[in-house]
Structures
1.
Amino acid sequence: MKSLIRIVMTGAFLTAIASAATWTGKISDSMCGAHHMTTAEHGKANKIDNQDYAGLAEHAGHMVKLTGDMTGDTIKVANIEMPRKSSKKHKAAA
């Protein structure tokens, strides 16, 4: 019985890990006062479920990496961070 409980708990943990996703995009503040995430990959604006998430307002207008769970067209934010800048140096054309 203990092994069955351990297997179920492990499966639930792995499912929770697998459900989170990361998107790169821009945080916007709509006219209604709600924040949205426009993904760079699809150009689609998604609603943000937890509008009171810390850092959301300060990143409005910024390109960010947002991690969370999506249900329909709504993302529940788990983490938000600025993407790292590329360290590649571009050579000027001669």
Note: The domain at 20-81 is CATH 2.40.50 (OB fold (Dihydrolipoamide Acetyltransferase, E2P)).
2.
Amino acid sequence: MPYVIAEPCINVKDKACVEVCPVDCIYEGETMLYIHPDECIDCGACEPVCPVKAMALRFVHRRHASWAGGAGATRRAGDNPRISAVAHPLRFPRS
């Protein structure tokens, strides 16, 4: 069950998750970040550091993976550059 980044990340792209991801499976798209589902090891390190709570576990039965976004997330992540360093991440106060 790989993690996915949901709608709250759109136009935020905080990148705190990038700093804690042990396998560098987070890619930057035009308006949001994406997690490559084949590279995510389900460690959950990204979930507590996300300031907008955009991380979620994605349970998809392999039989339904084609319509559940698994292939789409792989394509979107693969089309974007891998993030390996964060220059100036945005910070939001935790509530």
Note: The chain is about 15% helix and 15% strand.
3.
Amino acid sequence: MMQKAKDKGVKLLPVDGVAAAEFSADAKPVAVDGAGIPDGMMGMDIGPKTIALYAAAVKEAGTVIWNGPMGVFEFPAFAEGTGPWPGPWSRPPPSPVWAAVSPRPPWPSWATPTK
């Protein structure tokens, strides 16, 4: 399936990430190149290369549906990929539709649900 996607030009993400040995705000972030997470570690966030690829894709998108955080945004060391939403998604892009689907706040001020 992965080869089929590559053959069709699909960009497979993530290409890098941030891992840690424990789920803790004090855990030491470890940069991981590629999508593999070393044994004894867990994925905690997307990495800078993946952030740049998402930013480029969002910039060109006609419709964006955002389904929750990219990393463990509650821990500052693992919040780079989520928020405050970096780059072009720090404000709504000039696209016809922008939807942020998140299980809980904080949402950017422009995406705050209204009653």
Note: The helical segments are 2-7, 48-60.
4.
Amino acid sequence: MNEKACSGCRTLVLIALRRLRIQDQFDKAAGWTVVAGKIDKLPDVDREKLLLVGACTAKFKKEGIFVDGCGPVSTEIVGAIVGEEQAVWWDYADISAAVFNPPR
């Protein structure tokens, strides 16, 4: 992730990855490149597994999978990685567990 990414995008990407881990879907994140923050050019990676997170990456939204927002919604990040039809949406209790009681 870009060192210029704000704490909001960084946190929401980490929460999304933690959700994938709790749901035993973390392996689906393998091979993805996540870009967040203000950038001038994209990395030379597979565009089908390029996740552009947050409003700061909007100028590149046609170059990969784009999740809009400032900050973006972590469930949308999960949905982008696993495919919307496979995403498991959480209620508030699940979100609290992911944030405050991470798996070890």
Note: The chain is about 35% helix and 10% strand.
